[in-house]
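Protocol step 4 of 6: structure prediction from sequence.
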Amino acid sequence: MHKPTGADVGPLVVLAYSGGLDTSAIVPWLRERYGARVLCFAADVGQGAGELHGLAEKAKRSGAEDCVVEDLRDEFVRDFVFPSLRAGAVYARTYLLGTSMARPLTAARQVALAQKVGAQALAHGCTGKGNDQVRFELTYAALGPELRVIAPWREWEFKGREDLIAYVKAKGVPVLATAEKPYSTDRNLWHCSHEGGILEDPSREAPEDIFVMTSNPLEAPDTPQTVEIGFEEGTPVSVDHVPLGPVELLTALNDVAGEHGVGRADVVEDRLVGMKSRGVYETPGGTLLHAAHRELEQLVLDRRTLRLKDELALRYADLVYDGRWWTPEREALDAFVAATQKRVTGAVRLKLFKGGAAVAGRESPFALYQPSYATFGKDNVYDQKDAEGFIHLYGLAIKIAAGLEAQRRPQVAAEAE
């Protein structure tokens, strides 16, 4: 792509657009640097009406030809969030992958729009230090390999957010970020992430004013609340016995968990590009779903299947975090997960109180728990004498090794003398 001169018509670039600081700067920059015609694309994955309101007008004021906003909330929860939930995918022990799951969907629809309108290039506002650049560009590679990729953060002269703030102000583009409060936030139906500013110092506590989805646990209701989540084959389908669609269900759980201050995580994580970073995440409904799903699996899956699934859950989390969604690897893992979820049907009750979510009960028609075997009271189904032979065989290798070691000790002592 070249900077056009004379009568040249600028190339058409489809930009993944949020209206935030970075993409607000990219629109005029693409026009200046490449003489490009810019078509913005925004995915509604549940970031809220406040962020989406007036987005098209803002994009046009920045110099874009238009802005396409697509409602992807149902698809996001149904086809990206719930499969990752069923897989048990958690990164860095506590990160529930909110941003990571949204990017492959956003990028896929961006590619589809570019192909539909005959664009020559794709652009995104991801920095050269972050993970999102990989997530976007691996999706581009899988679904639109013929399209050129422009990543301004790897090209332009700006060094940081302060430079961008000055640039967009000079262009007359309004943004929420300021030099005094330069937080980077990313919100969708699943979570809200917070980075930058004083959060870059991992020794400092996150200020209370950054949180938008969860109440301060210290100020949460003084009375616990119990919520019941129903599952069918690993997919959540109801709250308190009321059947709900994916978006409605997650919204309901976000509301109740957020009210009780549930779902905050302060994470120092390993970015794919090699550095550690700190993010503060709010995932209220997702925290409840993961807790309930784990408990239901524990009730219905046998020990070895559960162990294998836990091992592959780490692989799945890495796959999502690293942007490898559109791969045969993910399809293969989904097939395995689907096999494990056939009997993950039932309900789990959670008690919410002051930022915590404790299991208050679980039930399933496929439960492997049998009270007649597990009881400490009198029973007629378990012969405790059988344990003697089991322990003898189970510990036989340990016993043999210990005996041989005892025989060797006198010989070793004699040789030492």
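Step 5 (inspection) to follow. The CA atoms of residues 351 and 357 lie 5 Å apart.
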